[in-house]
Amino acid sequence: MSSILYVGGNKGGVGKSMVAIALADHLRHVLNRPVFLIETDTANPDAAKCLGDELDATLAADTRTEAGWQTMINAIEQHQDKTCVINAGARDNDAMRRYGDYLHRGAETLAIPLAIAWVINDERDSLLALRDFLEGYPGRVDVIGNRFFDETGTFAVYRDSKIRIEIEARSGTLRPFPILPRPLAAAVKTDRRSPATILAQAPLFERIALEKWRADCTETFAPLLAAANRT
User: Is the pTM of this model over 0.90?
Assistant: First the structure.
């Protein structure tokens, strides 16, 4: 089933691009689905540069303008046979507030499920951005806690917040995003080598570590993908 998976966070440095890369890699190489990746941060399309050659289609759309949303929504229609992953840029909340209804209405018109993943670190400002997003989006949101910032995976700031209560009232979950060893993370994020490329070239320990990370990502993304299938 095709779906639209929006990866947001509205704050630079929380790991949205790494989550988007992991999600697109999981869809393409683990689930064997066709993938259409959209980057809304046209200045830093990290996920597309990392995975572009392995995916079925990519697009950079500047969602700060209505024209960018026009480009994106029309492209989703053209690629509606694929699972669409949207890697939202930092400060995308303003754009979603102004133009996000295009995405919601587009998904409804095409009868394509829309699911939201929101990436947080261990700081309160990432929660404030989530609260701001929830005020403009009434549906389910699944929270992904980046364990790079909290190795325990407890995310106490989130768990002790009213935002958690709101997320759970909407049937959302908190899932930890696994830590990729630093040399491998640098190869993906900085050198823009895809997980599949690393697996084909890396020594044994690195291959084992990356396969474990992929398996852990499967657990992380399970509620998000299940929500998309139920929508």
Answer: yes
